[in-house]
């Protein structure tokens, strides 16, 4: 069973239902889709916090991935409802660490855990940029 993170401020839930296109020859979700789910959850969380990509474009800077780590624990199957729970656990001057917990909605079993190290860069030159205070304030750091 999963630790209940739903009541913690700063934790965002992104819902998804497994589609036929995500199923591999072993009859479960291919591992690459878990990665796609984490990115979709991060983007949805950012938009919900008032930072859709259009706002980053206006700022002239955005987040890019430096590294991903995923631990697969249980299989997701066709039709499963999954919740990709995400939160920011570190926010530095030019980088952040975002964690994820992918949970099967029907029984709250943790299917995978993951984390992504993001760096903030200028859109034009892809050079490192300082995270503005207004952006930092939009994402409370959750120490989990």
TrEMBL record:
<dbReference type="InterPro" id="IPR029069">
    <property type="entry name" value="HotDog_dom_sf"/>
</dbReference>
<dbReference type="InterPro" id="IPR050563">
    <property type="entry name" value="4-hydroxybenzoyl-CoA_TE"/>
</dbReference>
<comment type="similarity">
    <text>Belongs to the 4-hydroxybenzoyl-CoA thioesterase family.</text>
</comment>
<keyword id="KW-0378">Hydrolase</keyword>
<protein>
    <submittedName>
        <fullName>Acyl-CoA thioesterase</fullName>
    </submittedName>
</protein>
<dbReference type="Pfam" id="PF13279">
    <property type="entry name" value="4HBT_2"/>
</dbReference>
């Amino acid at each position: 069973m999963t630790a209940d993170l739903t009541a913690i401020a700063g934790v965002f839930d992104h819902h998804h239902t497994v589609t036929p296109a995500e199923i591999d020859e072993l009859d479960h979700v291919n591992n690459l889709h878990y990665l796609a789910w984490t990115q979709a959850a991060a983007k949805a969380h950012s938009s919900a916090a008032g930072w859709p990509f259009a706002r980053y474009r206006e700022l002239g800077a955005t987040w890019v991935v430096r590294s991903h780590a995923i631990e697969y624990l249980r299989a997701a199957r066709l039709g499963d409802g999954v919740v990709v729970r995400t939160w920011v656990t570190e926010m530095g001057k030019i980088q952040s660490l975002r964690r994820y917990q992918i949970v099967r909605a029907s029984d709250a079993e943790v299917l995978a855990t993951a984390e992504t190290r993001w760096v903030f860069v200028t859109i034009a030159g892809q050079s490192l940029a300082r995270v503005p205070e207004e952006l930092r304030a939009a994402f409370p750091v959750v120490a989990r």
